[in-house]
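Example record

One chain of 271 residues, shown exactly as stored in the release files.
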Amino acid sequence: MTPKATPSKSIFLGLVLSIILTGNLLAQENETSASSEKKWSFLVEPYILFPNMKGDVGVRNLPNATIDASTNDIFGKLKMGFMINLEASNGTWAVGSDVLYMKLGTQKVRSRELINGSVVSASGELAAKQTGWELMGLRRVTPWLEVGLGGLINSISSDLELTLPTVGGGTTTASASKTKTWFDPMIIARIKSNNVKKFNYQFRGEIGGFGIGSDLAWQIQAYAGYRFSKLFEVTGGYRIISLDYESGSGQDRFLYDVDTSGPVIRLGFNF
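Predicted C-alpha cells for this chain:
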C-alpha cells in the first residue's frame, strides 16, 4: 500500500496545538463566574452529510483495496443513514454528543500490490457499515474560542470481495469480512459566534488517536447559518473525517485508512 501524504496532517496538528496553547494563555485574562448561575440551553441538530470516501481498506489476508467513491456513488447504493448532533451549553461549558451511522451498499474498489516481486492488480467490491459516536466537553476561554477533550468510538464493518489473477492467466474470487471497534481520544478546539445572533458561524478542529486507537484521527468542520427564530436555525458547511487505523495480522488483520468528506446541511432546534 502506498502511504498517504502527511504534510497536511502535520500542518493541521500544528494549527490545533497553537490554538489550544493560545487559548490557555488568554484564559488567564478572563473573568471567572460560577456555571451554576448561568442558564443552560440545548441544541438538537439532525443533519445530512453528502459523503465522498477515499482511502485504503484491508481485511484479513486479502490484498489492500483502494476506495474512491463520490457522493453519487454512495447515495446510489446507500441502504441506511442516521446523523444527529446534541449539545448543551451554559456560556462557559458545553457538552455534546454526535452520532453518525452509514450502511453502504457495494462500492467498486481496486487493488494493486507488490507480491513475490510482481505487481498484482485486482478489482472488486466493498460493502461497509460505519458508526461514529463522539462525546465531548468544551470550556470557553475567550469570547470566541472553546477548547476541550472528547472521545470517539468507531465501529467499522468491511465485507471485501476481490477478483484476483491466477498463475495460469485466469482469475479467482476471494472474499473476507471483519468488524472492528475502537476508541480514539480527541483534542478539540472550536471557534464560534455568539448564539444569540441571527447569523452564526463555527470552525471546529480535532486531532487524536495517538496510537491508542487510530494511529491518527482528525476532523475539520466549518459551518455558517441563520437563526430564523428562538427555536429554529439552519446551517451549512463542510466536514472532513480522517481515520488511519490498523491492527492484527493474518486472519485477524484489519485496515481502515479512509477520509470521508463532503458538504453538510444541519437543522437546529434550540430549547
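Notes: The radius of gyration is 21 Å.
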